[in-house]
Amino acid sequence: MPAIAYTRGGAEYVPQYLTAIDAGKCIGCGRCFKVCGRGVMTLHGLTGDGQVVQPGSDEWDELEDEIIKKVMALIAPENCIGCGACARVCPSDCQSHAALS
């Protein structure tokens, strides 16, 4: 049975936690990052061969010329509270969410 949460008013809901971001669909707009106050995701680079590269890392310095676009990447899924705000603002439907079982 999925975990049940409650609103301030006492209404029940089932939190839907962010489980993945499809880098191929993500357009790197940052809307999800802006609505999430929990530090669950951040902007990363994506190379032509699909490698996701973290800004400021040694890989970033080595692969900077190969980065073809910037995308959101899941960095701290344990911080997600399952509110779904990121899914509501995403224009590219690149996120996967699931309830805890």
Written account of the structure:
The structure is a single chain. With 101 residues, the protein is α+β, with helices and mostly antiparallel strands. The protein has 3 helices and 7 strands; from the N terminus they run E-E-E-H-E-E-H-E-H-E. Strands 5-4-6 form a 3-stranded antiparallel β-sheet. A two-stranded antiparallel ribbon has the order 1-2. A hairpin with a 4-residue loop joins strand 4 and strand 5 (52-53). It is elongated and about 50 Å long. It starts with a strand and ends with a strand.
Topology overview:
Blueprint: E1 5-6, E2 12-13, E3 17-21, H1 31-35, E4 41-47, E5 52-53, H2 58-63, E6 67-74, H3 85-89, E7 95-98
Antiparallel strand pairs: 1-2, 3-7, 4-5, 4-6
Distance between the termini: 6 Å
Q: Uncertain segments of ≥5 residues (pLDDT<50)?
A: none
Give the % helix. Answer: 10-25%
N-to-C series of helices and strands: EEEHEEHEHE
Shape: elongated
Counting DSSP E segments of at least 2 residues, the number of strands comes to 7
Strand order of the largest sheet: 5-4-6
Biggest sheet overview: 3 strands, antiparallel
The helix-and-strand class reads alpha+beta
- Count every helix, treating DSSP H or I runs of 4 or more residues as helices: 3
Q: Indicate the mean pLDDT.
A: 93
A few lines on this structure:
The protein has helices at residues 31-35, 58-63, 85-89, and strands spanning 5-6, 12-13, 17-21, 41-47, 52-53, 67-74, 95-98.
What characteristics describe this protein?
single chain; 7 strands; two-stranded antiparallel sheet; 101 residues; alpha+beta; 30% strand; three-stranded antiparallel sheet
